[in-house]
Each structure stands twice: as structure tokens, then as C-alpha cells.
Design brief:
Layout (H helix, E strand, L loop, with lengths): L1 H20 L4 E5 L4 E12 L5 H14 L2 E6 L5 H11 L8 E9 L2 E9 L5 E11 L4
Antiparallel strand pairs: 1-2, 2-4, 3-6, 4-5, 5-6
Length: 137
């Protein structure tokens, strides 16, 4: 029984990771505060079906296999990153206990993290890794 559950979970993660790579990245700006950038959020599941920390580790491993390298951790979002997070989440009618995977793109690097929406519309972020795409010249 446990092997079936593990297999189903791994298949679900595979399809969820595939859907993240197909998401549409959008440009957001706030000229009043000087914030701008590219971001995207993808619905991953609910907190009952997805552990945000485990999902983030699987996502990082997938991106590593695609040529991305971790360059650091994000312990606190900057004002601009927070602006981009909420703009990307604003594309959804999010509800409490939902989990989203968020990417903020900056040139050939990006910040990735998972977000769990709380019941009152605030959120908890999990992890936060800066990655860059290694290019060989």
C-alpha cells in the first residue's frame, strides 16, 4: 500500500513540475514605488495534499537537472519581491490552505519559493532559493 501511495505522489509531483515549466511569466510594474519585474505563480495543491518544503526540494532538484545552480538563500523578501509575489498570486482567486509555487525572474537568475495561503489572505513562504542558469561560453 505504501509503494502505491509513493508512486502516485511521485507521479503527481512530476506532472505538477511539468505544469510549472509551462506557466506564463508576466511583467508587473509599480511606477509609483519603482518596482518592476517578471513573476509567475502556479497552483500546486492544498496543504492537506502537499508539503510546501518537500515540494520546494523536489522543484530545486528538477531545476538543477535542467542546468540551474543555487547561488544563495532568501530569508526575507525585499519590497520588490513581495510586490511581485502578490501580483503573481493576484492572477488566482486564492483561498486558505492552498499552496503555490512562485518564481521571480531576474535576468538569467530567479528566486523560487513555495507559498501556503492562510485563511485570512496572508501567506507563509517556504524556503527561497536564488538560482541562476549556468551558461558555457
Amino acid at each position: 500500500m505504501n509503494i502505491k501511495k509513493l508512486t502516485l505522489f511521485l507521479l503527481w509531483c512530476f506532472f505538477a513540475l511539468c505544469s510549472i515549466t509551462a506557466a506564463e511569466i508576466k511583467y508587473y510594474s509599480d511606477s509609483q514605488n519603482g518596482y518592476s519585474g517578471y513573476a509567475v505563480a502556479d497552483y500546486v495543491g492544498t496543504t492537506k495534499t502537499v508539503n510546501p518544503s518537500v515540494y520546494l526540494n523536489l522543484w530545486e532538484n528538477d531545476l538543477y537537472q535542467r542546468g540551474y545552480i543555487k547561488s544563495g538563500y532568501c530569508n526575507k523578501l525585499s519590497n520588490q519581491e513581495s510586490f511581485l509575489l502578490w501580483k503573481a498570486l493576484g492572477e488566482y482567486d486564492y483561498r486558505g490552505n492552498e499552496v503555490y509555487a512562485v518564481r521571480i525572474i531576474q535576468g538569467n537568475s530567479m528566486l523560487i519559493f513555495t507559498v501556503a495561503i492562510k485563511k485570512r489572505g496572508s501567506c507563509t513562504t517556504y524556503g527561497g532559493s536564488y538560482l541562476y542558469y549556468q551558461t558555457w561560453y
